[in-house]
Amino acid sequence: MIERTTLLEIQDAMPLFEESNLPPCTFNLKVMPGDCIIIECRDTVTSSAFADLCSGMIPLETGAVYFNNLDWGKLKEPRLSALRGRIGRITQKGSWIDMYPMSINILLPLLHHTKLDLKDITSEAMELCYDFDLPGIPIDSPRHLSSIDLARAACVRAFLGQPDLLLFEYPLENYAAELSVPFMTMLNNAQNRGAGIICFTRQLSIWSNYRQNVTQWMNLQERGLTVSGSYNVDV
Amino acid sequence: MLAGEIINPTQEPDHRLRRLFLRVGVPVLAVILVVIVVVGISIRSYNATRNGILRLTQVILNSEQSRISQEVANYLRPATSDSILAIDMLSHIPIEYKRGMFYSYAMSSLRQVKQIQSFHIANDNGEFALVDRSNMQKDRVEIITLQPDNKGGQFLRESRTTQGKKLDQGLSPANAYDPRKREWYKNAVAAGELTWSAPYVVPSLKQLVITASIPFTDQNGLKNVFAVNISLNQLTSFLSSLHISKNSVALIMDRKGNIVASRDMLLKVEQPGWDPADNKIDPKVNPVLARAYDVFRVNGYGVHNIKINKTNYISIAAQLPKSAQNWVVMIVMPERDFSEFAVADGKQNLLFSLLVVALAAIMAGLLVWQGRKMEALGRSFRFIQELGRREVHALENISVKPEVFASDHEALIFSEELSRLTLARRVSIWRLIHHGQALLSEDVFDRENGTHSGGVEYSNIEIPDFFKLLDQSEIIQIDQADKDQRVQQFYLLFMQSIKSSKLLVVPIQGKKGVIGVILLEDSPFVHQTMHMIKIFASLISMRFEINEDYHDEQEMGSSTSGKDSGEPGISWLTQTMHEDILKHEKGNKDNYLIAPHVEHEGLKDFDPDKPLPDKIFPHVSVMNLIFSGNMDPQADLSEQQVENVEKLAVNLQEIANKYGLFYLKVMGGHIVAVAGCSKTFDPTAPVRLAHAALDIRSACIELIATTQSDSSFGIGIAVGPAMGTWLGKDPQVFNLWGPTVMRASLMAGMAREGGTIQVTESAYAFLRKDFLFRPRGSFFVPKVGVSRTFILAGRR
Predict the structure, then answer these.
(1) Is residue A137 in some structural domain?
(2) How far B372 CA lies from chain A's nearest CA (Å)?
């Protein structure tokens, strides 16, 4: 049984125009546990900025962004970083640290935010790697990995530790054929356990198989965040 | 929420450091403060006492110094004021009486004054007379008179008693002795006043002597010198007799640094070759006196404090009367001689203070202990509050769902709420079936994954020890289930899948005894929540009791449903199909445990020698069983294992034959069984396959229990379309493929826990009348989208 308390709430939030790439308008969004919100956004910069807004990384002119009922703007370190540790995210640029092997890159968030035993973290990461068709946890440096394996590793990192909120920036756009099955399986599992999901996309058709589980379809453009109604595409 | 978070952002920081400071730091600081204050007071008290003592000491020493000065002045008075009196008389009496008066005075003085050694008198004419204390006999004196002649003169020696009686007389050569050439005479005449000689030793007497000479003019106008020899031995003895303090030293020095008198002077005098002119303070031998003298030379008379080798000393330099040649009396003593009792007093005070500090430390320790106790109490209170809140919440959740007591409704809330209350990793509710001969899991809730499963059935034969445990009808807590003989078999079959170790066994009591059991795995709060666990056991018991008749009917109905409902029951199927199967000649056996064949008459004519009329089968029932856990390269590869598997295979063949399956194929760790491979829909096919799946599961569980391996397996059943045909040539192999086969495989793969049978939504639709199911949730199925799956719990 999932406790239905608001997971993420963007409440009349207007980001500082000078310090973000978001349009100067008021944003409102409510994500409940188990929600899956697909946001169609053509502009990759704007989507990244909105993901940053959800992660409490954008200063606000007005309004507030609450995650787990905590106001990002009022939270101070180290609670701020700890709360951010509850978000699993796939960024467009990958955000890999090249000087570390992929194994460290994948495990680093949990190693930093939790006191879990390395063995347990590795075991969980290993299972996720299998789920995403990686034969194990990659240990090469990020630059030596193929782009599809990097995408798989990004998924593993995002799902690792069962985060409360998942922010995905165009996760399947280039690798739908390889990733959609394991990705949507894991997405469904995350939804079932009560995680909130926000996913940015340019290709709504990718989500046709998953449309039953999508709770809200939205658009992010110059006018801000708008509801686009249900998605109906024959596949 | 992340498991094992270092910082929980949803909780206000508990300021552990601040609390630690308040709890421990403040008492410790208070103790340190007390220590500082006590030590400060002790030091200040010690210093005040010491200063007072030093002031008192100075007063005493000044007084002592005055006494010494007076004593020294008195000692030397025969040579000063007494001599002046004598010469005054000698200079004013007629010359013919002068010598007689000299003798009388000298004799009288020698009798009365011990320190006077001798008297001399001489004049410009070279006349000389001496009255000397005899060194041989105590009460005798010698009078020596110089009688000049041409041969250098003679000394007339008269020996007399101190009373003046003449004893003997004699002459001795004077060897041209001329008193006018002697220092004592020349210095006195030159100075015209009282002069003192430097101390010198009289070897015959072993006396340190000084001479005081006073010039005077007699009635005839001749210059005379009156001299007195005073022994310093008596002065030295006097200084030795002074005991100002335990370690005090007193000495008299002249302005040239020569020691005139000191405690050990007499010992030195007796040493041969000792020269009083070299009798100075040696800094190497006596650094304290040397420093005291240096300080006197720099700072002059008075009391001075000096410090040598971390020891404080007091020195006093006092001037003697001018008549005593400006000699200096020096007294040196360690400060501790006076302040020792103050130190002892200070130590005692410090000891008492330390006792106070110790008491304060004990009090502080008690305060810390009390603080910790209060904090623990606070935590406990908060925990009880939170527990109470959760208990109320749990009961409220149940109270709003009365349907949980109805037989046709699931009661997942019991396991969920129990898990939330006890924080157990997994909560499972089991019901005793078949007259207590088997346990059926009604619901298994995994808190970490938030998933429900169930339908696992264990018989008394599989886990006899566990059943014996249940017979005790007591709540039993086991800390290490894998090592406890009573639950070891159960651990291998059920608990090993999540590797839990702690197990709480809570029997569910019904009217006729134990009717089920609640199992909580790895719960950290068993004791605190025991009362709620018992309440839940009672609630679940109510549910079981209310539905007792229903369950009995289901158990009975599974054997009679064919007759009652008019639908083909299992006994009918077994009977009719087995006959059909026996009639039929088996196909190619090379690749099958049960080769593809006609399942039963009237449904499908299936002959490998004839071309298949249809290769598309719209309603095939497929079962897939996947073993896992044998990836360890170190796994036991014994022949016994092979034999066990061989037995299992025979068992599986019997089951397949019993339920008339279309084929049963084994491939590595996969077992695939198919029923209903026909163009027309066979409604018995999924039912037969499900029955077979339950029996196969029992057979596999028995195998695992026997071999005690860590293998686990999952079974998936799907019903739907498939393609199939004979492939290859000599031998030909019949193969089915398509979405239904894949989904059966997926169902098996996604049900890895202890023989769970997972079926697709379509299979559930065909089986729900004959079997008990529990929804597992919705899942994303490739190419299909989101689909619901169900766990086959058992036969109705």
Answers:
(1) yes
(2) 26
